[in-house]
From TrEMBL:
<protein>
    <submittedName>
        <fullName>ABC transporter ATP-binding protein</fullName>
    </submittedName>
</protein>
<dbReference type="InterPro" id="IPR027417">
    <property type="entry name" value="P-loop_NTPase"/>
</dbReference>
<keyword id="KW-0547">Nucleotide-binding</keyword>
<dbReference type="InterPro" id="IPR032823">
    <property type="entry name" value="BCA_ABC_TP_C"/>
</dbReference>
<dbReference type="Pfam" id="PF12399">
    <property type="entry name" value="BCA_ABC_TP_C"/>
</dbReference>
<feature type="domain" description="ABC transporter">
    <location>
        <begin position="9"/>
        <end position="257"/>
    </location>
</feature>
<dbReference type="Pfam" id="PF00005">
    <property type="entry name" value="ABC_tran"/>
</dbReference>
<keyword id="KW-0813">Transport</keyword>
<dbReference type="InterPro" id="IPR051120">
    <property type="entry name" value="ABC_AA/LPS_Transport"/>
</dbReference>
<dbReference type="InterPro" id="IPR003593">
    <property type="entry name" value="AAA+_ATPase"/>
</dbReference>
<keyword id="KW-0067">ATP-binding</keyword>
<dbReference type="GO" id="GO:0005524">
    <property type="term" value="F:ATP binding"/>
</dbReference>
<dbReference type="InterPro" id="IPR003439">
    <property type="entry name" value="ABC_transporter-like_ATP-bd"/>
</dbReference>
Length: 265
């Protein structure tokens, strides 16, 4: 029997309220090193809120979050990024007026080892750092098939390519865990299939954990090792794709959503 991978991310009994609204209620979850975990649930279930808690956009009202044994509660988004969590957003947030390659280099700079002093005075260490960053940015552009567009303004890329660039940029910060919020939203079926192959490849080659929010159910079922299901702020199921596919509670939650949507139509 192989030894189980160590736990990387731990969420313990986390809740979050917004005024009177309980967006998350006593949710616990974990991710092991190298796992690709799905986070699904009907609209308004609390998925993005959980991402926002994991990345320091909001603080939990109760409960604790640990990454690689370090507590994340109370840290700012940039501090959590430095501890190894990077994310993409539902609505793409690139520097549209900067080139593709500069978007990647910006992310490297956040984590580059050369200090502000060495870059200010252009010390030899600064040039060594720049050379290294150029090399790494090149590698990432090749992997994400964006090399031929490196000097184009990010805002001019097609939607599918902007989504890929956003993931490339998150990866450039050297994360231990990558949080992807609906990375396939707005993509056509071919772009989606390519993206999924890429996500699996990233997981295997960068040996990192990935948490994926995605509405496309077949996609989640195909790529994830395990899945958590939220509904109205509560965790209602957890398990392998097979377990989730046949869970009566999950089916009921989604049917409930369909019925609500039909009622509003
Ligand atoms: N900043 C906020 N202020 C007030 N309410 C919020 C805030 N953020 C989220 N909510 C509420 O919390 C609940 C959960 O929202 P959340 O965006 O986390 O759901 P979701 O599962 O990501 O939904 P979707 O699939 O539609 O993106 C919703 O009722 C939402 O309106």
């Amino acid at each position: 029997m192989s030894t189980p991978a160590p736990i990387l991310l731990e969420v313990n009994h986390v809740s979050r309220t917004f005024g009177g609204l309980q967006a998350l209620n006593n949710v616990s979850m974990y991710m092991a090193e190298g796992e690709l975990v799905g986070l699904i649930g009907p609209n308004g279930a609390g998925k993005t809120t959980l991402f926002n808690l994991l990345t320091g956009v909001y603080e939990p009202s109760a409960g604790k979050i640990h990454l690689a044994g370090e507590k994340l509660n109370g840290l700012k988004p940039y501090q959590i990024n430095q501890k190894g969590a990077a994310r993409t957003f539902q609505n793409i947030r690139l520097f549209g007026q900067m080139s593709v390659v500069d978007n990647i280099k910006m992310a490297f700079h956040q984590h580059a080892r050369h200090s502000a002093v060495s870059s200010m005075f252009r010390l030899p260490m600064h040039f060594k750092g720049e050379k290294e960053i150029n090399k790494k940015a090149n590698e990432i552009l090749e992997i994400f098939n964006l090399k031929d567009r490196e000097h184009e303004l990010a805002g001019n890329l097609s939607y599918g390519k902007q989504r890929r660039l956003e993931i490339a940029r998150a990866l450039a910060t050297g994360p231990k865990v990558l949080l992807l919020d609906e990375p396939a939203a707005g993509m056509n079926p071919q772009e989606t299939a390519e993206l999924m192959t890429l996500i699996k490849w990233i997981k295997d080659n960068y040996k990192l954990s990935i948490l994926l929010i995605e509405h496309d159910m077949s996609l989640v079922m195909n790529v994830c090792d395990r899945i958590y299901v939220l509904d109205r702020g509560e965790r209602i199921a957890e398990g392998t794709p097979e377990v989730i596919r046949t869970s009566a509670q999950v089916i009921e939650a989604y049917l409930g959503q369909d019925a609500e949507e039909e009622g509003h139509a």
